[in-house]
Amino acid sequence: MKILVTALVLVASAAGPALADQCEMLQAQIGKAIGTRYDPSAANARQLATQAWALHQSGKHAESEAKYEEAAKAAGITLEVMK
């Protein structure tokens, strides 16, 4: 049992930084895609990306990724994610 718990902790600690890098990559993709667009869908995507970044900074990476996907959909773009 102790080995299982240790293994789970190691996997979780390795996954955290990977998800954090994913958030930064998604933020950059959205920023590049909407650039200097000022249409309503870009404004909505920008607002959602700001919310996603706040989630990322508070350590909620899975929620942040979901919010980035929502922002991408609002902007009409497809994000490339790490696997």
Describe what you observe in this structure.
This protein has helices at 2-34, 40-57, 61-75. The protein is mainly alpha-helical. It has one domain (2-75). α1 runs antiparallel to α2, α1 packs parallel to α3 and α2 (40-57) runs antiparallel to α3. The longest helix has 33 residues, at 2-34. It starts with a helix and ends in an 8-residue tail after the last helix.
Strand content: under 5%
Order of helical and strand elements: HHH
| Count of discrete alpha- or pi-helical segments spanning 4 or more residues | 3
- Taken together, the total number of domains comes to 1
Radius of gyration: 15 Å
Unreliable runs: 4-19
Query: Largest beta sheet, briefly?
Result: none
The overall pLDDT, averaged over residues, is 81
Anisotropy-based shape: globular
Total beta strand runs: 0
Percent range of helical residues: over 70%
